Amino acid sequence: MNSTQEIKEFGIKRENEERRDGGCAIIFNPETQKYAVYDNLKTGILGLYGGGFDENEDEETGVLREVVEESGLYDFLHFEKIEKVAVHYYNSNKNVNRVAFATCFFAILKSADLKPTKLEEHEKFELVWKNPTEILSNWNSRNKNKDFDHWVYFMGIATNRIKELGYAN
């Protein structure tokens, strides 16, 4: 993304939006041809691993930290920035309206080995493996408020890039 490129905006503006920039990752296992997402045990919503950046933390470091803490996945063959967008959404894990610059990366796993997770109190979810059709169906069925538009957009870019790199069957 160059500095003159307009940043795409997703979601619906809401009252009392809390600003919290962060990022997420689309994680692909070439062995199984599935994607790592979390299943929110309270809502059944599938989600991309990620979160807010710590002070003075760059985007890549922040997303990698969040992915390892939340999923336990750590053994990556490839890690690449997809895009940065502006997004308005309802954060169901923290029960707040958010506005943020969200930066998405995609990761190709070298192995699906896991480290112990470090979930926060509000993070009631577990790692599951799904194909893009299952993930998109989950998001689209819950997307009347446009909370998942940016994830749908990121998934499209990532699946195309994974094909370009020769990892998809």
From TrEMBL:
<dbReference type="InterPro" id="IPR015797">
    <property type="entry name" value="NUDIX_hydrolase-like_dom_sf"/>
</dbReference>
<dbReference type="Pfam" id="PF00293">
    <property type="entry name" value="NUDIX"/>
</dbReference>
<dbReference type="GO" id="GO:0016787">
    <property type="term" value="F:hydrolase activity"/>
</dbReference>
<dbReference type="InterPro" id="IPR020084">
    <property type="entry name" value="NUDIX_hydrolase_CS"/>
</dbReference>
<dbReference type="InterPro" id="IPR000086">
    <property type="entry name" value="NUDIX_hydrolase_dom"/>
</dbReference>
<feature type="domain" description="Nudix hydrolase">
    <location>
        <begin position="18"/>
        <end position="154"/>
    </location>
</feature>
<keyword id="KW-0378">Hydrolase</keyword>
<protein>
    <recommendedName>
        <fullName>Nudix hydrolase domain-containing protein</fullName>
    </recommendedName>
</protein>
